[in-house]
Amino acid sequence: MKVLYFHQHFTTPRGASGTRSYEFARALLAKGHSVTMVCGASALAGLGVPVEGRRWTRVTVDGVDVLAFPLSYSNRDGLVRRAWIFLSFALRSIWLALREDYDVVFATSTPLTVALPGIVARWFRRKPFIFEVRDLWPDLPRALGMTNPVVLGGMSLLEWCAYRSSVAAIGLSPGIAEGIRRRASATLPIAMIPNGCDLDLFRPELRRPLALEGIAPGDFVAGFTGAHGVANGLDAVLDAAAVLVRRGDRRIKFAFIGDGKQKDGLAVRAHREGLWNCLFFPPVPKTDLAAVTASLGCGLMILKNVPAFYDGTSPNKFFDYLAAGIPVLNNYPGWLARLIQSEGCGIVVAPGDPEAFADALQGMARDAGRCVEMGEAGRRLGEREFARQELAAKFVEWLEQHAGRPGEALAGARRAEGG
Q1: Domain count across the chain
Q2: Domain enclosing residue 258, as ranges
Q3: Whether residue 79 sits in one domain with residue 44
Q4: Confidence at 192, pLDDT banded by 50, 70, 90
Q5: Rounded CA gap, 95 and 69, in Å?
Q6: HSE of 24 in the Cβ direction (CA atoms, 13 Å)?
Q7: Lower CB count within 10 Å: N or C terminus of the chain?
Q8: 153 and 214: one domain?
Q9: Which residue has the higher pLDDT, 413 or 380?
Q10: How close are the terminal C-alpha atoms of the chain, in Å?
Q11: What is the sign of the dihedral through the CA atoms of 255, 261, 267 and 273?
């Protein structure tokens, strides 16, 4: 089976972002399928290809045929530039969907516009299209304050078309799977395949003294690894840091590792308020991040207090924390909070309560034995429920089951819709 795989933000382990698509593509190769990965070139992707220019670059990366457009994207970009990059990628991808040789299209959001080549492949080339949803649009932008009716209406229409054009779908969390069901045909097959733990890369035995500027021996370091965007609500961490400064606690430090639109503002606020316990570091390649993560006192699972996030996200960092065997401190309700509480792999605090946040950190810093127990519980949970290899195998089986031969898949989808 030849899979044309669209992921605008595709990253290898040599890059500094999630590697789900890399692992899934490798799993497809292991089962004898071929994969052409279509993505945007980015300095953080670990592809080693030009990120500027007019022409795309085609390279082979660990057996995966990668076609990268020079459309570098950053979380720091403004709305207009991001929209232009998303549309440019979608239009170029449509051109590929019309001319490449393949059996099935698989597209993974975000952005939602990545579904466009799949829609075109379905109706113009009679190819099966399977859509993976990482965030619910327009639900999430609306929850974050977007009010433009034209933009929201366009997202809603594109979402509806994507679901109605798919022969099957994948959601990364329970809430996402439920959101697809609300908008899709009642007979559309939907699988819930969350992000997972790279248990071979992230390991507790990699723990070592942190060689980060500003960290002293004996410090308890609470780390956040990932995007510093509006949705992450990282001001909540600075609020807790301010409480600890007022209490005179000099042992607990916060390490912000990554990049994003809000990072500069967070650093400015920390400097202005004298939050010497907040330390900011650039993104780290996955291959190096594993040792850093294992060496943290705890991992911070932080999001803005938006109900759409409660069951509608599947953050990579959470699964990295589990695999690395460190406790998780979470500040919002939802399916991950329930997992943390039921499995005993961390602490959940209420959103908007910096005093409780600080109390939880001080309790962790005082009780090393309990931290070890919570970390071990997290690792066991990762091994039992979220092993990346097993999730990748489930993904491959789902594609094999629903792609079929192109004519059969399209006919089956039409029968399901009553056509």
Answers
A1: 2
A2: 204-385
A3: yes
A4: very high
A5: 12
A6: 29
A7: C
A8: no
A9: 380
A10: 26
A11: negative
Question: 41: number of CA atoms within 13 Å, CB side?
Answer: 18
CA 289 to chain centre: 15
**Paired tokens of 206:** 């990699």
Task: Check whether 241 has a pLDDT greater than 50.
Answer: yes
Phi/psi class of residue 262: alpha, beta or left (left: φ > 0; alpha: ψ in -120 to 50)?
Answer: alpha
Please indicate whether residue 70 or residue 97 has the higher confidence score (pLDDT): 97
Cβ-proximal residues to 152 (8 Å cutoff; 6+ apart), any chain: 138, 141, 142, 146
Q: What is the amino acid identity at position 290?
A: A
Question: Is residue 176 domain-shared with residue 263, that is, in the same domain?
Answer: no
Q: What does pLDDT average to over the chain?
A: 92
Instruction: List pLDDT tens digits, range 72-122.
Output: 777 777 778 888 899 999 999 999 999 999 999 999 998 999 999 999 999
Question: Are 132 and 217 members of one domain?
Answer: no
CA distance to 86, 90, 93, 385, per residue, from 345 (Å)? 38, 40, 42, 14
Q: Are residues 357 and 397 in the same domain?
A: no
pLDDT (tens digit per residue) in 195-210: 999 999 999 999 999 9
Distance (Å, whole) CA 74 – CA 402? 34
Q: What is the mean pLDDT of residues 321-336?
A: 98
Does 343 share its domain with 410? no
For residue 4, which phi and psi values (nearest 5 degrees)?
Answer: -95, 110
* CATH value at residue 308: 3.40.50.2000
* C-alpha to C-alpha distance for 75 and 77, rounded to whole angstroms: 5
Please, which residues have CB within 8 angstroms of residue 43's CB and are 6 or more apart in sequence?
51, 72
Q: Which residue has the tokens 């109390």?
A: 359
CA distances from 165 to 35, 138, 216, 329, 414 (A): 21, 18, 55, 40, 10
- Do 398 and 368 lie in one domain? The reply is no
Token pair belonging to 396: 């491959």
Candidates 97, 117, 120, 95; CA nearest to 108 is: 117
Q: Length of the chain in residues, anyone?
A: 419
CA atoms within 13 A on the CB side of 232: 24
Instruction: Note the pLDDT of residue 55.
Output: 80
| pLDDT higher than 80, residue 412 | no
